[in-house]
Specification:
Layout: H1 2-76
């Protein structure tokens, strides 16, 4: 009878651990995604700003439009 109680307690602890691990995994996955998106936005903002400086307004506008078009296509596919 003692082994059955210990086994039940161990099973309950394992289930609780699994639920907590899944919750933490999801939390850090979302946090990682947010950080990656922020880095992507920062990188692209710097790229656009440098393209405005390096090539002038018209060339960077065309480049930004082209990049935006490619970005939209990549999300659609």
């Amino acid at each position: 009878m003692l082994f059955v109680c210990c086994a039940d307690a161990l099973q309950a602890g394992a289930q609780q651990f699994e639920m907590n691990a899944t919750r933490l995994k999801r939390k850090y996955w979302w946090q990682n995604l947010k950080v990656l998106l922020e880095c992507w936005l920062l990188y692209n903002s710097m790229f656009v700003a440098l393209s405005f400086v390096a090539w002038g307004y018209l060339a960077s506008f065309c480049l930004c439009f082209h990049l935006f078009y490619l970005l939209c296509l990549s999300f659609i596919m």
